[in-house]
User: What shape does this take?
Amino acid sequence: MKSNNKLIGASLLSAFAASLCCITPVLAFIAGTSGLATTFSWVEPLRPYLIGLTVVVLAFAWYQNLKPQIQPDCECDPTEKKPFLQSRLFLGIVTCFTICMLAFPYYSHIFYPNSVNNTIIIDNQHVAKVEFAIDGMTCSGCEDHVNLEVRKVDGVFNSTTSYEDGNTIIEYDNSKTDIVEIENAIKTTGYTVSKINEE
Assistant: This one.
């Protein structure tokens, strides 16, 4: 029974570790400490292995729980009720929670508010475009984090961020802001700007 509890604990730990790179930016945003967002970005390359470990551990826990039990040759009560932490219900709850943790990168964007910039462009000759190469982003939650901070800058009216390409493309009014101010907004997220391309 103790080994089953250890399996459940191991599956929860590995599922949490697999999603740590995406959970940290959301927690940092909620706590107001954006600079901590990239703390666990080094976990991202290990994510497939941690997911595999989680699946194997959970599968083994279910196997242990569902396999027919050998009845001992004694006059014990065979209908003895298992404690809740060793029940199938608890294992089912843990499995559902683990799936939610593993899927976190796919729904993490819901934790960021929709930001609408009310900047109205009157003079098209002040419209400028710049691309920032960004290191440290690991999921779509990171994209939302960067977009949220950049759109707070007065004069920025559009931002398109991609963690897969490792960049953000910003359209802004250069009479209201400049590249340095936008770069500083990106740096507040904790990610690193590695290159700037003006278009």
About this structure: The helical segments are 2-31, 47-66, 88-102, 104-107, 140-150, 179-187. Residues 159 and 170 are 4 Å apart (CA to CA). Strands lie at 127-135, 156-162, 167-173, 192-198. The radius of gyration is 24 Å.
